[in-house]
Amino acid sequence: MWHENRIEMKQILISIFRLDHHQFQYEFSKKDLKGKEKDYYTFEAHIHFDDAMETNKATNTRGPNDFVRQFMEIVNEAGGAFYNRKIMLNPPQKYVTPYGGRLEWKLPGENKLVVHLKDKDKIRHKKRWSQIMYMYYFIGYELLMKDRNPTTITNPNFDDSTSIFELLSDEIKQKAENTYILALDGDVDFQPEALQLLIDRMKINPKVGATCGRIKPGGSGPVVWYQRFEYAIGHWLQKSAEHMFGCVLCSPGCFSLFRVKALMDDNVMRTYATLPTKAKHFLQYDQGEDRWLCTLMLQQGYRIEYCAAAEAITFAPEDFKEFFNQRRRWMPSTMANIWDLLKSYARTTRINPNISYFYVFYQSILLFSSVLGPSTVLLALESAIGSVFGVAPSVAYLLTYGPTILFLIICLKAKTDTQLNIAIALSAVYALLMMAVFVGTLVAIASEGWYTPTGMFFYIIVGTFIIAGLLHPHELGDLLCGVVYFICIPAGYLFLIIYAICNLNNVSWGTRENKTAVLEHSGPDQRKGKKKETEDEIDFVTTEMISGMIKQVKNSNLARASCSEAFFSIFRWMNNLVILKSLESVQNIFDKTKDESDAAEDGQTVGKHSLFKSRRMKAPMPRKKSLDDSSWASENVRQLNPSKLEPLEEKFWKDLIHFYLYPLEADQKKEEKDKEMLAELRNEVAFGFFFLNALWLAIMTAMNEAKHIINIKISQPSGPPIIIEPLGFGFLVMFTILIVLQFIGMVMHRHETLLHILSITKLTKRKKIDIKEQIGLLAKEDVGYDGTDDSVKDEEDAIYCNEKMIKRAAEERAALKHALPDRYERRRNHALNLRKTVRRSLNNQHTQDTLNRRGGGLQNQDYSNQE
Fold first, then answer.
1. Is the separation of the CB atoms in 305 and 262 below 8 Å?
2. Is residue 488 within 8 Å of 431, Cβ to Cβ?
3. Is the pLDDT of residue 859 over 50?
4. Higher pLDDT, residue 284 or 795
5. Which helix (H) or strand (E) holds 255?
6. Contact 657, 123 (CB under 8 A)
């Protein structure tokens, strides 16, 4: 977590409460009901809060910031939302740790919710380092150190070992293979069944290092609609094909399951903790950290899979600028990691049996088509404008290429906000032109014939998307968002790519950077700190105003000034006095609203009735005390002192921070060098990228001008001849082959998903109840007789002989079946009524037998009635 809002925090907490309740059911079934639960599991929820501490200048203390307080307010609210009633968890147990702090809650299912508060002054911040922090904690401490088992390491000589697993005992290796880390974003909504589906994929093959699920973007608006269709076809076609033909290249960090043993392997977790030293490292390591982790696992021989049945929802950017900034991070990282994997194809194909030369060729074609995406969009737009509006080719070139070249120059020279504003305007204009592309395609098909290469490609694209939607019936509504996706193709495949390439040197995060927390309850210390900051700001503005007025008086020379200059000088002084008086009024209002507890504190102004007077009557400031970073753990808790970590864990954190996660000090020379390296890399990549696109545009334009010589004509029995451009036709064939391969992979993956769902579906056969057998069992349990009389018949035989009683019991059972809606209540009442019927019938039979033995039932009628 970092700067999530209340809705996002509540969503992930509800998912955690849901998982806690689900695990408790398994726990209760296994331990209390003695059931055999093959899917039994235990879990702990850990949330790492990045940059979670702030300093209160008024009290000289350092503690959790507003986002942490917001999270603490929402915990009980989220629990109430899940259980549909108000719940109050016990206050969290607070720890002061070497990396900042820790909060621990005990959930209703007896599972732990641990929140790690990272202080960027004590430990390295940002997302990748948070992942390294919890991976080393779970593996290094929880798995290897916590039990203090001397047999954990069998071979202490590290130099003689070729793998880390040669040093570990069989028990630890088995535990590492069956322990998983579910990586989540701070706003994900998922079901426990989705987690079990991911675990199923891990159980099938021990070489599966990670498994990802189907991510669905949440939110509303056109930007989210675009992403809904983009995510849909990305999972339906691309991830399914990767899963079937090789391995998934990226298991997204928002909802993925990682095997601990795979993370422990050589060249995975340790390499993942490498500091960037080259310009490309900043793009590959930190801009898309989940993709780089998956690249390391693939290069180590592990398989990454995609489970379509495991679904999760995460909030997607709803703002155009936030969406562009997010993809500005993702796009260069994707290309850098794919390029790294392709460069090491010889070693990777030798180590990883799931990656073949065919799969490497498939990814190479995808990368090549992605690079030529902008020029392909421009060619389609130019052709459509020429065919629909009937303008000259030169005009079509100017209308299509001119704004694009202008935007390219703006992205290289202007500020980021200016680039985004221009991108918004151009995306809106080109969205209108995309309708011309659609009309132009239909016109070309109608004029040239229905069986032209353009027409066939159009049919394949549309048909593939429709069939893919039909094979995913619960996601069929995402096809409607394809209209928004189509008209926004220039925004996503032209302007976004230009923006990302031209801003390679910008390695900032880009999202959630300027958000503020919303608190329902603010503590007195926090209010005091805010008021102190406001008072300091007013004093600063006042000081600047007075200094400016004094400087004006010193610099002015009214004796030698003209009448107009003297008039303007007097006017400026009067204006400054009015502003100063307004500031005085603001401060007087501010003083009146202060709490009574703030009236007499050291260092405050004495007798503030005027700004001028207050500046002369300041009390002497006390000496600055050392920063208090532990008192926050004693607030609102029962114990006087905060909880303490175990000495072993304390030592582990200190060593981990010392060797891997120490905060990076600001080094201006290094920062300048990094900026120069990034700018140089940006220039090289931008030149190569745009040169390839310009070359493709030049070739296609030249071939279009010489189409009467180069183009191939195929005569038709009826209609105009089919004209084929050799290079364009080759490009269409390549795209068609990719689409067909992805379609085949999707169909194969849907079949695999169907088998997976069938394997976990419990098919129960309806049990037929034998009425006679049931009545006999009830008779044995609930009716007792005197066994001294040998002439009495067996009660079961008497029951079986009484057909009327059996029929009556069956009728009562059928009546209860229709009367009671609740099946459990129906069974209970049915059993009680059946017992009464059996007991009454057996008692009557027993009475009649007794009367017959005593010599006449009519003589003992009174006894019978009494009995």
1. no
2. yes
3. no
4. 284
5. strand 255-259
6. yes
